[in-house]
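Action item from last meeting closed. Structure (326 res):
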């Protein structure tokens, strides 16, 4: 039994240790492979880092016999991988903050928006350059334009020439149209007489009386001129009527219209006064009703106080007067 125990103890002490080391080395190699696969898509891991990790792993392998396999797994490789991952994230955030992030991470709408902004900036720059070039060309043309010499007088040319023939110079004015000529002729016939139009009948009557007074004064001085002025007034009124202007030159009609207007104004005035009186009366009625209601409330409040006093047993002078004891 002792021999069997020794053999078991020797087997447990010797060969199994080698097997455990082999299994630990295999597990470490598998972990390294998985870590390399993880770090390859991130693009941050270099062969130097993997080679730098291997000595650490070998050291761990040598010291793995002393410690447990779980402690050897989560020391150096995990910490290095976490540092690389954090560095990469920091670098990506810095690039995104600067606006230099990778185009693969941006959506198609964002890329299209950037492209449109870039095209708009280029268009504005091009427009500014064109405007600047036009301004420069205009300034250069202004500088190059020679000062025009004043035109020489025609009399000097005639003096220089020995012989002078009959020569008529006509200004190059365009002939007026038929409508323009008709308008000018009509204006000449009208003169400076303003038409009697509008609805201010009192003013129209005053103007009509002033015209009649002027004609009468002119008739006393010169009857012919007075007749000419009357004919001109008639022609002016006819021309204005032909244009569609309503001329109010009848004294009788103007007086009737003025009477109607004053009558309407008087009626409106009476209506307004009646309305204002009605409003004042209504306001007075409201005020009287308000005062009456206030007096009633005051009397009711005093009566409530007296009732409370009677309930408490007080004898009031009003009660004595009613009873005839006072």
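Sequence:
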């Amino acid at each position: 039994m002792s021999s069997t125990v020794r053999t078991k103890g020797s087997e447990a002490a010797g060969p199994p240790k080698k097997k455990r080391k082999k299994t630990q080395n295999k597990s470490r190699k598998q972990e390294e492979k998985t870590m390399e696969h993880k770090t390859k898509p991130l693009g941050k891991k270099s062969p130097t880092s993997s080679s730098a990790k291997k000595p650490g792993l070998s050291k761990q392998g040598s010291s793995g016999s002393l410690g447990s396999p779980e402690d050897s797994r989560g020391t150096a490789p995990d910490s290095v991988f976490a540092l690389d991952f954090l560095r990469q994230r920091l670098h990506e955030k810095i690039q995104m903050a600067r606006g230099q992030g990778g185009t693969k991470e941006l959506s198609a709408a964002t890329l299209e928006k950037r492209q449109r902004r870039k095209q708009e900036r280029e268009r504005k720059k091009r427009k500014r350059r064109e405007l600047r070039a036009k301004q420069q060309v205009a300034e250069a043309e202004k500088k190059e334009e020679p000062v025009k010499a004043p035109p020489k007088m025609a009399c000097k040319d005639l003096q220089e020439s020995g012989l002078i023939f009959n020569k008529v110079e006509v200004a190059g004015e365009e002939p007026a149209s038929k409508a323009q000529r008709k308008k000018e002729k009509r204006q000449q016939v009208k003169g400076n007489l303003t038409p009697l139009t509008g609805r201010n009948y009192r003013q129209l009557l005053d103007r009509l009386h002033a015209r009649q007074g002027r004609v009468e004064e002119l008739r006393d001085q010169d009857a012919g001129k007075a007749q000419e002025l009357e004919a001109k007034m008639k022609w002016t009124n006819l021309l204005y009527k032909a244009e569609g202007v309503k001329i109010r030159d009848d004294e009788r009609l103007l007086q009737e219209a003025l009477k109607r207007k004053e009558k309407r104004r008087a009626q409106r005035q009476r209506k307004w006064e009646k309305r204002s009186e009605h409003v004042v009366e209504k306001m007075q009625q409201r005020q009287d009703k308000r005062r009456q209601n206030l007096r009633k409330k005051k009397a009711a409040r005093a009566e409530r106080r007296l009732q409370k006093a009677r309930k408490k047993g007080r004898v009031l002078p009003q009660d004595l007067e009613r009873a005839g004891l006072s």
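Note appended to the action item: The radius of gyration is 60 Å.
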